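Why run this: before we spend reagent on co-expression, it is cheaper to look at a predicted model of the complex and decide which construct boundaries make sense. The entries below are exactly what would go into the expression plan.
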Amino acid sequence: MELRYDEDFVEAAAFLCTSGRRKGVSTLQIARFHRERERLYSILDPDDRNTAFFRLHLEWFREWGLEEVLTGLVKEFPLLTRMLSVLVVRKTRGKNDDGAELYVNEARQRSAIVALPPDFFERDVTLRNYLRHEFTHLSDMLRPDFGYLPTLDLPGLNSAQQRLARERYRLIWDITIDGRLSAAGHVPMATCEQHRAAFFRGYSFWPEARRTDTFDALWQNGSPAHAQFLALIADPRGLRESHGPAPGASCPLCGFPTFAWVSDGAVTTEIARTIAAQFPDWTTEQSLCTRCLETYETLAGVVVH
Amino acid sequence: MSNVLNWQLGREMEYPYEAAYPDQQFAFIFNINRCIGCQTCTMACKSTWTFSKGQEYMWWNNVETKPYGGYPHHWDVRTLDLLEQANPGGQNWGGKAEDIKAPYGKFHGKTVFEAAKTFIGPQGANRALGYLPTDDEWSAPNRYEDHPVGNEKGVKGGYFKGGELLPEHKTWFFYLARICNHCSYPACLAACPRNAIYKRPEDGIVLVDQERCRGYRKCMEACPYKKTYYRGTTRTTEKCIGCFPRVEGKDQAGHGLPMQTRCMSSCIGHIRLQGLVGLNPDGTWKEDRYNPLYYLIHIAKVALPLYPQFGTEPNGYYIPPRWVSRPYLRQMFGPGVDDAIERYAAPDRELLAVLQLFGKDQRICDRYEIKEGPKVFETEVRGKKFVLYNDTIIGYAKDGTKIIETTVEEPLHIRPDKHANSI
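The model came back. C-alpha cells follow.
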C-alpha cells in the first residue's frame, strides 16, 4: 500500500512544527527549514516551484517524525496494507470535515482518503486516538463479514428520515468502534459514558432497559456487521405500522416526521374541506402537523391569531 | 518599541517602529446608511485583482452583515476578546473631545501593540496581539447575510409595534463594507519578520513586496481587520493595493487625473468617497478645510474610524448607521458615534451639500466649493430644525479641473408628451 499526502496537509503540518506547538523541534531546525524554503522562491516556473515546495515540506515532515507516527499506526491495521492500493492523507477543510472514505475504481482497486486536522500533530496521543478510530472505520468497510455497502438500502423513507437514519448509523458504528478500541486497551475518541449518553439521546423513545441492553451489546460487539446496524436504524419506533398521530410519525399531508400534531377541534369544517380538495382520502382521524394546519388555515381564508 | 502619536486615541502609544509619515495619506469614507449590500464593489475588486488561481478565498473588498457576519468569521469579536483578556475591564475611553489631536477623547485601554507585550504565545511574544484564522473561518465571505438581531420575539400573524422607530430600531442589522484600511501604524507591517510590507511614501498605501514575502503569515495573524490573505499557489501574502495605478492617475479613463479605486467607483449606492489628505510632521491631518474628507472627519465629524481602539490608526472612516444600537456602535466606532449620528440625521447646509459628492465622479475630488441656492423647505427632525437649500456643490481635482457640479435636490426632467418613450 502506498501512502500519499495532500500538499496542503504536509505544508500545514510542517508549519505547525515551526510554530513551537510540537515538542522536540529545535530552533536550529526551524531556521534551517526557513532557509531552505526561502531558496525555493527563486524558482520562476510556478509548477516547478510548487513541486519543489512539496518535496521540501515532505522531507521535513519525515525529518520531524510525523510520517513515522502515521506508518506506525497503519501497521496496526494489516487489513489496510493488504487490501488498499493507496491511502491518501489530506487536510480537513473545516470542523465537520474529518473522517475516512473508501473508494473503489472500475478495476476493483481500493483506495482510501483520511481527512486529518494538522493540529493533531501537536500531541501524538490525540493523533493516534483519532487515527485508530478512523482506521478501524476503514477496516470495517474492507472486512467481508461486515458486508459494507456505500448506500443505505432503506426503502420507503423520505429524505429527512434517511438523514436521520444515517445519523443513527454513524452513532452506532462509532459506539462499536470505540468499544472495540477500549477492549483492546486503547483510548477511544469518546468514553463509554459519553457514547452511552449520546445513544440514550438518540433513542430516547425506547424504554430505559431496552436502551441499556442495546447499548451494552453494541459496546461489547467484537464483530459488528452492516446488517445489524440497518435493523437498528430503519424504523426504531415501529412507526411504519402506525397510521395515527404518533410522536415522530410522518404527517399524512406533507410527509415530514412531526412531534407537533394538531389538537382536537383545531381542524374546522372549512379547513377540512380545503384539505379534502387536495387529499381526498385524508380523514380527520389521521390528523396533520401544525405546519400543515397553518398552510390550510391560510388557504381556507381562516383568520390567524 | 517607540512612542508615536495616535490622534484617533488622543494619546501616544507604543509601536515597534519609529514614526514615519507619507506626504499624503490614502483615506476613504463609507456611508453605511446608504449601503444595500449588493456586493458590486466586491465583484469590481475581484474581477480586477483577485481572479486567478490561488486567489479564490481572497476578497480584498467584502461586505458583511453585522452584527453576526464577518470575513473571516467573527474577526472583530475574536480580536476584541483577546484585548479584553489582555486587559480585563480596562478597554475604556475617557476625557473630553478636543482638537485635531484628540477628536474622540482619550483611549485608556491597550492597543494590539501594547497588549502583545503581555500575551506570550507558543512562539514567544508577538509584535501585535492577534490570531491566525483557521481554514473554515475563511470559508464563507457572506455568512449570516441579512440576519438581524432583535430584542423582541416575533408574534404569529403580527408585527411588534414601533419596531421601526428611531433613534434605535428594535430589530436591526447593517452592511459593513470593508477593504484594507491602509493604517498609519499597520500591524501587518509591524509583524512581518522579513520587512516585506511597507507604506508608500507618496500616498501611504500599504503594500506587500512579493519579492520579499516568504509566506510566514505573521501579517495575517497581526492585522486586527484580517485584511491580508495567503495565496497557496505562490506561497506569499497578498492584500488590497488601494488600486494604486488609478490613485497615481495612470488609468486611461482618468485622462491623467488621480482616480478613486475600483470598489469606490463602482458603488451603485454612492456610499463611498476616497481621496488623499495631507499630513503634519506628527501624523495629524494638515488643515485643508475644503477637502471633503477633512471636512467630514474633522469639521462635521460625521465619519469615524473602524475600531480605533485596535490602535493601528485606520484610514477607513464610516458614517455610522443611525438605526443601530448605540452601545454596539460605540464599541465599533468609538465615543464619537452619538454626535456623528445626531449631526447626520439632521445635516446642516454644508454637510448636506458635501454628502452629494459621494459617487458622483470616478476622479478624486481634492477640494469643493458651494454656491448657495434657494431655500426649498424647512421641517423638524427629532426636535431639531432642518432647512433644505438647493445649493450647488462643485468638486475640483488636484490640478483644479472641475470634475463635479451637482445640486442638493436631484435634478428632475419632465418628459414631453410629444414623444412618450423619449427622454
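The mean pLDDT of chain B is 94. DSSP finds eleven helices and 23 strands in chain B. Bring this page to Monday's planning discussion.
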